[in-house]
Amino acid sequence: MSCCLLWNLLFMDLLYMGLLFVNLLYMGLLYMGLLYMGLLYMGLLYMGLLYMGLLYMGLLYMGLLFMGLFYMGLLYMGLLYMSLLFKDLLFMCFLYMGLLFMGLLYWVSSIWVPFIWVPSVWVFSIWVCSL
């Protein structure tokens, strides 16, 4: 009887140990599952942050690209303005030089031409008359 009781207790103890082992295994698997879920969550969070970071970097890049294009546009507008200003100044310079040249030509023609032209006509007429 005591032998059966001993075997019975031993069996119950082994069963209890087995259940405890299964329970610990279950707890361990649950812990591993939670750990896995936590790691998965952390991974997803990291991926999300990475995605957000990449999105932020993309937006920053797009913003910098936009700023660069805007700056290039302003630079182009500035160069266009400078070019137009330069052309305008060049045109004004040429106009001024032309007016100055016309004025000099007028001054030369009004003062020096009679002194050059009239004696040459006299010389030409004297030469023709002498023939």
TrEMBL record:
<feature type="transmembrane region" description="Helical">
    <location>
        <begin position="60"/>
        <end position="82"/>
    </location>
</feature>
<feature type="transmembrane region" description="Helical">
    <location>
        <begin position="33"/>
        <end position="54"/>
    </location>
</feature>
<keyword id="KW-0812">Transmembrane</keyword>
<keyword id="KW-1133">Transmembrane helix</keyword>
<protein>
    <submittedName>
        <fullName>(Mediterranean fruit fly) hypothetical protein</fullName>
    </submittedName>
</protein>
<feature type="transmembrane region" description="Helical">
    <location>
        <begin position="6"/>
        <end position="26"/>
    </location>
</feature>
<feature type="transmembrane region" description="Helical">
    <location>
        <begin position="114"/>
        <end position="130"/>
    </location>
</feature>
<keyword id="KW-0472">Membrane</keyword>
